[in-house]
């Protein structure tokens, strides 16, 4: 009896040909709606793409619908965050906000406080450009984060780095540049009062 040759094992489908799930389609629908709200596509195109998204069967079919759109929520696609102290000061945080790849803080006459505690950050590094100017800039980072200040010009006001080098794996590095100006720049971890407030308001 002649032995039959073994049947060839099925080849895995290319990634683009894998079947899309309901969640995959819903994620694309949300991205398309956000794009329309931002004025990237008009309402007629939105309707057309939504219809295609809901009937798409594979990843490749879904990818075509968002190929010309920035990735939703991608920190690299977010515009820089710019804080200007002006006459009355400015602040951001603490709280739950998305950290972009580039932040600019200008102390002006009123000062700026930039607090990264409890932020959502998916970047390995964040470029922070701080200019103390007349009233100074204060930056607060979580205990697990670290900072590189080698690109910073202390100016007349100086740079005070009160952080520890105990950076945990997978946490961001703040790469600080700019100038201390007249009033200086301070980067530190939360103080006693700030820690008390954080404990009293759990995330």
Descriptive overview:
With 203 residues, this protein is an alpha/beta fold. The protein folds into 2 domains: 15-66, no CATH class; 75-200, no CATH class. It contains 4 helices and 10 strands, in the order αααββββββββββα. It has helices at 22-37, 43-55, 59-66, 192-200, and strands at residues 81-84, 90-92, 102-106, 112-115, 125-131, 137-140, 146-153, 159-162, 173-179, 185-188. A 5-stranded parallel beta sheet has the order 1-3-5-9-7, with no helix packed on it. Strands 2-4-6-10-8 form a 5-stranded parallel beta sheet, with no helix packed on it. Helix 1 runs antiparallel to helix 2 (43-55) and helix 1 runs parallel beside helix 3. The protein is elongated.
Give the biggest beta sheet. 5 strands, parallel
Outline type: elongated
What is the residue-averaged pLDDT?
86
- The domain count comes to 2
- Strand portion: 15-25%
* Rg (C-alpha, Å): 24 Å
State the distance separating the first and last CA atoms: 72 Å
Q: Find the count of extended strands (DSSP E, 2+ residues).
A: 10
Topology record:
Layout: H1 22-37, H2 43-55, H3 59-66, E1 81-84, E2 90-92, E3 102-106, E4 112-115, E5 125-131, E6 137-140, E7 146-153, E8 159-162, E9 173-179, E10 185-188, H4 192-200
Parallel strand pairs: 1-3, 2-4, 3-5, 4-6, 5-9, 6-10, 7-9, 8-10
Helix pairs in contact: 1-2, 1-3
């Amino acid at each position: 009896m002649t032995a039959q040759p073994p049947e060839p094992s099925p080849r895995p489908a290319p990634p683009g040909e894998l079947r899309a799930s309901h969640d995959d389609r819903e994620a694309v629908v949300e991205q398309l709606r956000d794009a329309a709200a931002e004025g990237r596509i008009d309402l007629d195109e939105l309707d057309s793409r939504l219809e295609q998204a809901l009937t798409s069967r594979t990843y490749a079919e879904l990818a075509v619908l968002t190929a010309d759109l920035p990735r939703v929520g991608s920190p690299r696609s977010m515009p820089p965050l710019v804080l200007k102290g002006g006459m009355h000061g400015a602040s951001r945080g603490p709280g739950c906000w998305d950290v972009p790849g580039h932040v600019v803080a200008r102390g002006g006459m009123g000062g700026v406080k930039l607090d990264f505690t409890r932020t959502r950050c998916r970047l390995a590094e964040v470029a922070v450009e701080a200019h103390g100017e007349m009233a100074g800039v204060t930056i607060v980072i979580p205990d697990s984060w670290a900072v590189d200040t080698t690109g910073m010009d202390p100016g007349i006001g100086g740079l005070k780095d009160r952080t520890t080098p105990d950076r945990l794996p997978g946490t961001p590095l703040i790469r600080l540049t700019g100038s201390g100006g007249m009033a200086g720049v301070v980067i530190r971890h939360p103080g006693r009062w700030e820690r008390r407030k954080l404990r009293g308001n759990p995330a």
